[in-house]
Amino acid sequence: MPEFLGPIAGFGVTFATMFKKAETELYPEEKKPTEVRYHGRHQLNRYADGLEKCIGCELCAWACPADAIYVEGADNTETERFSPGERYGAVYQINYLRCIGCGLCVEACPTRALTMTNEYELAGDNRADLIYEKDALLAPLEPDMTAAPHAMAPGLSAEDYYRGTVTGHEATAESAAEPAVEPAAEPEAGSAR
Ligand code: SF4
Ligand code: SF4
């Protein structure tokens, strides 16, 4: 190209863009769905009867490169059981001011307690509101679920839960009232949801 055309060629992109249809996204009035594997807000999952999958092991917190997760585990008791096995996550916080959505915490979780949803509207007008507590992260109760604490389903062990054999129908009012009797057990890595 001759040198004298250089300044004119520089406007080529400008002129070409002037005649293209504008791609204006009308967010937030019109929200586009994300890709299915988009890393959005986290979720702490439950078993089918409502017991929590989190065992308070802190592996997610240790895996997080942004130090965005804080976990305090505690022991389940005979009268107050939040998860199958020995321990549960008593305090669980994710700081969305720090989270970079990398998903390493999900990879580290041995019980598939932690997954990520497609929810991306994580904004606030103050810092405190962006530290999500356990109650904001726990999966909603579905019709067959009973909110923890309650006993494990009769006849099922913690291993049965980890293998995913529990169903919501086993969490009867009777089992919710009875103390838990199953011994504590460690989960297997990569166990079923
Ligand atoms: S997605 Fe990444 S940055 Fe966010 S909490 Fe998990 S490990 Fe930390
Ligand atoms: S790694 Fe999973 S089970 Fe362990 S504290 Fe985190 S969410 Fe809970």
From TrEMBL:
Residues 44-74, 90-119 form the 4Fe-4S ferredoxin-type domain. It comes from the Bacteria. [4Fe-4S] cluster 2 binds at residues 64, 99, 102, 105. [4Fe-4S] cluster 1 binds at residues 54, 57, 60, 109. It comes from Rhodococcus navarretei. It catalyses: a quinone + NADH + 5 H(+)(in) = a quinol + NAD(+) + 4 H(+)(out). This is NADH-quinone oxidoreductase subunit I. Residues 168-193 are annotated as: Disordered. NDH-1 is composed of 14 different subunits. Subunits NuoA, H, J, K, L, M, N constitute the membrane sector of the complex. It is found in: Cell membrane.
